[in-house]
């Protein structure tokens, strides 16, 4: 079964709404508004060998992905289920592999080793036998995360990119949250993770844990005064 990936474009999504995760530290160093030029596409790529996952991504997105077979050999991808731009979706597919995507042409990406491997970003564990979330369940988690993040000015999403992994315990509490791909502001990241750790959801969401969440920049979305995400 595929690991659950909740991507909140501008805020969040999981399996259904817009989504993806940034994989490389280098992407956090680029301008925070640099989004792909393509409209979000639905991706349903299960956890599998990285080479086959990249081919599935290429077919689903209509973009060319150039990679060396030797470079991706023996590597696995956690996959992605949800809507995302091609650029973000590829980052999700590469999450935890130690590789990065480089935009090489209008409709082409090259998969390569990063120029300098980050030393402070946790490695992604091997994909576990975790069921994929359905749209309703994803919506419950997304709403809970949005309320927690919108409640504080310092953590409101929409202007930065941050990928994190969230563990939910048997009581429905977020037992832990760690940054997988930090943003360009460590202090803000700490506040976001602290806010996420206050979240409570139905205990049934425990079986989908851990969940990978992406906060990504997007225009036209904002937190309302009531603490809800609008866009």
TrEMBL record:
GO cellular component, one term: outer membrane
Gene3D superfamilies with a match to the protein in the record: 3.55.50.30
Domain Secretin/TonB short N-terminal intervals: 63-114
Keyword vocabulary terms for this entry: Cell outer membrane, Membrane, Signal, Transport
Pfam families (alphabetical): STN
SMART domains per UniProt: STN (SM00965)
Secretion signal, residue range per the UniProt entry: 1-22
InterPro entries, sorted: Secretin/TonB_short_N
Protein name: Secretin/TonB short N-terminal domain-containing protein
């Amino acid at each position: 079964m595929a690991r659950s990936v909740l991507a909140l474009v501008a805020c969040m999504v999981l399996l259904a709404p817009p989504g993806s995760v940034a994989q490389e530290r280098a992407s956090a160093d680029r301008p925070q508004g640099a989004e792909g030029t393509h409209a979000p596409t639905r991706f349903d790529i299960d956890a599998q060998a990285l080479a086959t996952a990249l081919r599935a991504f290429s077919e689903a997105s209509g973009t060319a992905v150039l990679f060396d077979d030797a470079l991706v050999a023996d590597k696995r991808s956690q996959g992605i289920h949800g809507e995302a731009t091609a650029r973000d979706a590829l980052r999700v597919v590469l999450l935890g592999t130690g590789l990065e995507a480089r935009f090489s042409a209008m409709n082409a990406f090259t998969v390569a080793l990063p120029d300098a491997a980050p030393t402070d970003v946790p490695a992604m564990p091997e994909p576990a036998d975790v069921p994929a979330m359905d749209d309703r369940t994803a919506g419950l988690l997304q709403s809970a995360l949005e309320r927690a993040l919108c409640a504080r000015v310092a953590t409101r999403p929409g202007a930065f990119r941050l990928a994190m992994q969230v563990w939910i315990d048997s009581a429905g509490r977020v037992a832990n949250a760690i940054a997988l791909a930090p943003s360009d502001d460590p202090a803000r990241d700490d506040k976001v993770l602290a806010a996420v750790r206050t979240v409570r959801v139905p205990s049934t969401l425990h079986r989908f844990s851990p969940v990978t969440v992406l906060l990504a920049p997007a225009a036209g979305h904002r937190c309302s005064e009531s603490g809800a995400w609008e866009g």
